[in-house]
Specification:
single chain; alpha/beta; Rossmann fold; Serine Threonine Protein Phosphatase 5, Tetratricopeptide repeat; DNA Cyclobutane Dipyrimidine Photolyase, subunit A, domain 3; two-stranded parallel ribbon; 22 helices
């Protein structure tokens, strides 16, 4: 039983009522802004804004119950506070080690299990058992059963667990946008203005542009964003969730990753709302299942694998990729990029700190895989440059799913494709100087040519995998392969 009068110290990703309400509703709350954390690495400017705005809004809403301390370090803040605190399990190995050191120093009284996820870490450990390879589908089905989500007794609603095949349509022909109702857009206030001034005064080294706040920073805003998505956008979400349109950055995506990852919104609240829409007949099953799969399946899976695989997992590099990230990539110089799909994705990170999952996997990740970018550097770039990026979010996504740098522990094959896939799933190629059908010549698509370069470089691995062996056979039949490989060795434009 936690000490009855001990205050709660909440990190910036632990700001929802499921952290400071319930049995802890009467406890004092400590919130800390540590300047050293802002300077630790180069984050996206809008990410720092969201974190500070969320902390300050939490302090304002909790009123006299909360103490907001600004200090150079967390340790300095805790020593000045003068009382041992309770703290929830943090969301990174580094923070966990730090909290344990504070506990040994007497500054932390107790570490509580996190309420941020549906499944606890011990429960996942029991499920994982002695597995060495993991399938998200197995985990997802168990999650559905455990939490009785989209179930008819012991069977899945609709007789199928997975509606992915219904959710892979290309964008509508002849349209620049999906014509979905716009997402929730928060209204900035004086707290946001003060955060902006504060970041200017600190002169912290950041990437990306300082833009209007696009994502929730309070539980109330998160609730509004969820309601708007469920009511107006979820019905359109599923079919084209993998599609990309140049003039429609949000499509019908929920944009709930930020409030979820800041701990403002509990995942089961989002899942319950989506299931309720299907039960009420206001959203099709394929769209609802696709959204629930993202939250109750993939997101929970990434969290659990982060802890299960351990801190060394992010150093995996099974494909021997050692190319440093280029400056135009790390500095988000989207206008230096000629390939329209890559320019659009990088501009989304520059302007909003956000891009949807297919842009992350099949454009940014695909480019990095083809060019052999160093996986750990890429992982850290995603974590720092995306507004929903945190230490636990990226390793299984980037090291495992995107870069196959874990040797197949998460994904059964590398996710790489040529320009044909991007041409099918987007309108980008219509606006691009490169031709997705060409692999050789000045207008050869860097994704199409890059794909064959990647297949050649990794032919031993791909040839031994039944899901990718055909690509190796096809490569060996390319009469112009030597010229393609030479072109890609000397490519200077993307």
């Amino acid at each position: 039983m936690p000490q009855q009068d001990a205050p709660l110290w909440l990190f910036a990703d632990q700001l929802g009522p499921h952290f400071h309400g319930g049995e802890h509703a009467d406890r004092p709350v400590l919130l800390v802004e540590a300047t050293s954390a802002l300077r630790r690495r180069r984050h996206h400017r809008q990410k720092l804004h969201l974190v500070l705005s969320a902390l300050r809004h939490a302090a304002a809403e909790l009123g006299e119950r909360a103490t907001l301390v600004r200090a150079e370090t967390y340790t300095e803040a805790l020593r000045g506070y003068g009382r041992p605190v309770l703290v929830y399990e943090p969301t990174s190995f580094a923070a966990e080690g730090f909290v344990h050191r504070l506990q040994r120093a007497g500054l932390v009284a107790e570490v509580l299990p996190t309420p941020a996820f549906a499944l606890s870490r011990p429960e996942f450990t029991r499920w994982a058992g002695s597995r060495t390879r993991f399938r998200m589908e197995d985990f997802y089905r168990e999650q559905r059963r455990r939490f009785d989500v989209l179930m008819d007794g012991t069977d899945p609603v609709g007789g199928r667990w997975n509606f992915d095949a219904d959710n892979r349509e290309p964008p509508p022909r002849g349209r620049d946008t999906l014509d979905a109702p716009p997402p929730f857009r928060p209204t900035e206030d004086e707290i946001d203005a003060a955060v902006r001034r504060h970041l200017d005064d600190l002169a912290v080294d950041t990437v990306g542009v300082d833009g209007p706040r696009l994502f929730p920073v309070t539980p109330a805003e998160a609730g509004e964003a969820l309601d708007r998505f469920i009511t107006h956008r979820l019905p359109l979400f599923g079919r084209t969730e993998d599609a990309m349109l140049s003039a429609d950055w949000a499509m019908a995506h929920s944009l709930l990753s930020v409030p979820l990852n800041l701990g403002l919104l509990h995942p089961l609240d989002a899942v319950t709302a989506a299931e309720g829409a299907h039960r009420a007949g206001t959203a099709p099953l394929a769209a609802v299942e696709g959204f629930i799969r993202q939250i109750l399946g993939w997101r929970e899976y990434m969290w659990q694998l982060y802890w299960h695989f351990g801190p060394d997992y992010a150093d995996g590099n099974q494909l021997g990729a050692e190319t440093p990230l280029p400056d135009w990539w790390t500095d988000l110089e989207a206008d230096a990029v000629e390939a329209e799909c890559l320019r659009q994705a990088l501009a989304g990170v520059r302007d909003r700190g956000w891009a949807h999952h297919i842009q992350r996997l099949m454009v940014l990740g695909n480019h990095a895989l083809q060019r052999g970018y160093q996986p750990r550097q890429l992982n850290d770039w995603f974590a720092a440059s995306f507004v929903d990026g945190f230490a636990w979010v990226m390793p299984a996504n980037v090291i495992g799913m995107s870069q196959h740098a874990d040797g197949g522990r998460v994904a059964t094959k590398p996710y790489s494709s040529g320009g044909a896939y991007i041409n099918k799933m987007s309108d980008h190629c219509r606006h691009c100087r490169f031709d997705p059908k060409k692999r050789l010549g000045p207008d050869a698509c860097p994704f199409t040519a890059g794909y064959w370069n990647f297949v050649h470089r990794q032919q031993a691995l791909l040839g031994a995998n039944m899901r990718t062996a055909r690509a190796v056979s096809s490569m060996k039949r390319l009469a112009d392969l030597p010229a393609v490989l030479d072109q890609e060795r000397h490519r200077e434009t993307f």
